[in-house]
């Protein structure tokens, strides 16, 4: 029985250390006993407003929950494994996701609850809070990234709340000639401050974001309607066919006609697969 205060302290530290080691060993044994079929990941399928993913160092999907599959436009996780964001999203958006992943993996630091637009392809005004962490192997080397995006209905904080209103307004009025001055007034900020805050929050200028919303709405019409490309361009806020085609190719990495042909083929393939089930 220790009598000196230092002896009592040492004994207490040793007891806590042994207790911690036992708990860690028990934890390790438990997870080693689990079937390697990623059972815990199945829990994320039960969260309807959360998109969860795991990617390897090269940006290839290694795991994806049901909501993530919906964002990527695939019917199952299997259809996404081994593919990257560039297989599912417009080039500029996929580039942004990849840059974020690289930042997390190179720095070893997480991105926590960053507010950004939802990764949807139908011009949705919804916002999500995104978090990402680096994944390490047993030797401590970063081998990938895991993350989730949680849909949020409202942001309760001054300027952020005003930004949410601006985003909603853009999505409701994307066919109109919106200016940064008009949007800045709505947010209660100067134009320069508004544009800085907007770019920080959404990774694009207000003008770039507006073009993206127009393109994504046009993409929906190309997939789901028989309207001419010129008619779709004018209905989505572009002043002529040539302007629309240039903007579409810059964002989607293909022409509107090529996109229509490709997506109609994909949808027909999916319909055939569903009939076979």
Automatic annotation (TrEMBL):
Residues 164-262 form the HTH araC/xylS-type domain. The keyword Transcription applies. Keywords: DNA-binding, Transcription, Transcription regulation. SUPFAM superfamilies: Homeodomain-like, PYP-like sensor domain (PAS domain). The keyword DNA-binding applies. GO terms for molecular function: DNA-binding transcription factor activity; sequence-specific DNA binding. It comes from the Bacteria. This is HTH-type transcriptional activator RhaS. SMART domains: HTH_ARAC (SM00342), PAS (SM00091). InterPro entries: AraC_XylS_family_regulators, Homeodomain-like_sf, HTH_AraC, HTH_AraC-typ_CS, PAS, PAS-like_dom_sf, PAS_4, Tscrpt_reg_AraC-type_HTH.
